[in-house]
Amino acid sequence: MDVATRVIMGSVKKAIQVSTAAAVVVEAIKGDATLVKDIADRRFKLSFGSDYGAVEVQLGNTRVLAKVSCEVIRPFSDKPTEGFLMFNTELSPMASAAFEVGRQTDEEVLVSRLIEKAMRRSRALDTEGLCIVAGEKVWSIRVDIHFLDHDGNLVDAACIAAITALQHFRRPDVTVVGEEVTIHSLEQRNPVPLSIHHIPICVTFAFFDNGEHVLVDPTHLEEQIKEGDMTITMNVHKEVCALSKAGGIPMEVDQILQCSKIATVKAAEITAQIEEALAADAKKR
Amino acid sequence: GSSVLCSVVGPAEVKIRDEKLDKATLDVVARPLVGLPGVKDKAREQAIRETLEPLVLSGLHPRTGIQIVVQTMKDDGCVLSTAFNATILALLDAGIPLKSILGSVTCIIDSKTNQILLDPTTEELALAKSTHVFVFDNKTSVSSTQQENDNMDQDNADSALGAVLFSDSTGLFTEEEYFECAQVCFKATQAVHGFIRTAVQKKLEKEYQQIQA
């Protein structure tokens, strides 16, 4: 079989897979009386690297790696006591052959903006605590999120990875005596954790069958046949950090409220799991 | 130690402007762990692409593209060597036809002791007088029995250099030091080839068992 035929066969197989999946998904949901699929469907696994701030999340077949690093730089002149928090969520062709280098697809832009909204705008990290010398030296925290495998729901996985990495990260200890600033190396003094106000967790929902059925944590196949989606970012204190519904079919208000209730439960579950994993890793060190 | 994750997709569709009429097009993307890709990553991409282009039997898949993505997972020195080894394993796993296998080893000459150190860490690299990255293919073997015989040593040296696919050296070093490093790395690469062989063997055994089950 030559390459051209193989490529066509590949895309035909994909089309059959997608339409079969649509039928299967709808049938499965119709068969079950409940409106929403079982919440505890895809468990996620956390693994930490040997360096501080390196976390890998595995959500089914979706794999995301987050790495936190820090640097001392000059702050903006209009915000002399604020540090910086930067996210880099460039998707590489490793995650999916659909992603190209240098060209951002709509999905990439949405993922990037959702992470920014969930993490930065919700003020999860205390940027004032990153100040060393007002107007001169502040910490700039950089979170690089690498998508290793795409099987749907990149946002949720990236969010878990990012917030866990920020909690796991330790920055070098600093002493300021008058004008003199000493940044201690990791051997001299134990590094210090970042001050995190709250832990935002993203929960993504996908809508099917004209808004009749809602799926939590959609896989890649489910994402391709969805009619609409919504991401709610919440923390354990039942505060909504962000709500994103960019396009797709319109939903009723009561459906959105029900989704937010599910998001509350999920956020609590995920936060508990993250804390457990962090405690287990701390013991190992 | 360092860790690199490599993914290979291909032979697959390629953009018309990158299409080659009689060969497969190799596209390598190297991503660092921290920060945006820079000049170092571009250099890494070029090294991997130019070393692999003659190895891949691209004539068997004309007008297609093979996309290789190399992601650094942990950086503690020798990332280029690790990337080379990861890439060849990924190509084998993807079933891309190859002329031969490659293996890569990095060595440094320490500035204080003048010793040759293999697989240096970031700390050791900082104290190096010169750093050498070698990539060897597996077509020539090392003759292990005749080490006293001068003629055989010369043969070994020749076979080491005959098998070089890629060599990158930085720092201050003499010609003798360079050839000595090549020899040492060549011997060390045999271990890398052995590891690749074992890895592929284990994978095939597992797959065979899965088919039987």
UniProtKB/TrEMBL annotation, chain A:
Keyword Ribonucleoprotein: no
Gene3D superfamilies xref list: GHMP Kinase, N-terminal domain
Keywords: Cytoplasm, Exosome, Nucleus, RNA-binding, rRNA processing
Biological process annotations from GO: exonucleolytic trimming to generate mature 3'-end of 5.8S rRNA from tricistronic rRNA transcript (SSU-rRNA, 5.8S rRNA, LSU-rRNA); nuclear mRNA surveillance; nuclear polyadenylation-dependent rRNA catabolic process; rRNA catabolic process; TRAMP-dependent tRNA surveillance pathway; U1 snRNA 3'-end processing; U4 snRNA 3'-end processing; U5 snRNA 3'-end processing
Chief localisation class: cytoplasm
Superkingdom of the source species: Eukaryota
GO molecular function terms noted in the UniProt entry: mRNA 3'-UTR AU-rich region binding
Keyword presence, Membrane: no
Domain (Exoribonuclease phosphorolytic): residue spans on this chain: 42-172, 198-264
SUPFAM superfamilies, per the entry: Ribonuclease PH domain 2-like (SSF55666), Ribosomal protein S5 domain 2-like (SSF54211)
Location within or outside the cell: Cytoplasm; Nucleus, Nucleolus
Gene Ontology CC annotations of this record: cytoplasmic exosome (RNase complex); nuclear exosome (RNase complex); nucleolus
Transmembrane parts of this sequence: none
Family per similarity comment: Belongs to the RNase PH family.
Name this protein carries in UniProt: Exosome complex component RRP45
Organism: Entomortierella chlamydospora
UniProtKB/TrEMBL annotation, chain B:
UniProt xrefs under SUPFAM superfamilies: Ribonuclease PH domain 2-like, Ribosomal protein S5 domain 2-like
First-listed, main subcellular location of the protein, grouped into a coarse class: nucleus
The keyword Nucleus belongs to this UniProt entry's keyword annotation: yes
Gene it is expressed from: EXOSC5
Cited CDD domains: RNase_PH_RRP46
GO biological process, one term: rRNA processing
Highest taxon listed in the record's lineage: Eukaryota
Domain Exoribonuclease phosphorolytic: 3-97, 106-161
Subcellular location: Nucleus
GO molecular-function terms, A-Z: RNA binding
Gene3D superfamilies (UniProt xref): GHMP Kinase, N-terminal domain
Keyword S-adenosyl-L-methionine in annotation: no
Name of this protein: Exosome component 5
Alphabetically ordered keywords of this record: Exosome, Nucleus, rRNA processing
Classification via PANTHER family: EXOSOME COMPLEX COMPONENT (PTHR11953), EXOSOME COMPLEX COMPONENT RRP46 (PTHR11953:SF1)
Stated family: Belongs to the RNase PH family.
Coiled-coil annotated spans: none
Listed GO CC annotations: cytoplasmic exosome (RNase complex); nuclear exosome (RNase complex); nucleolus
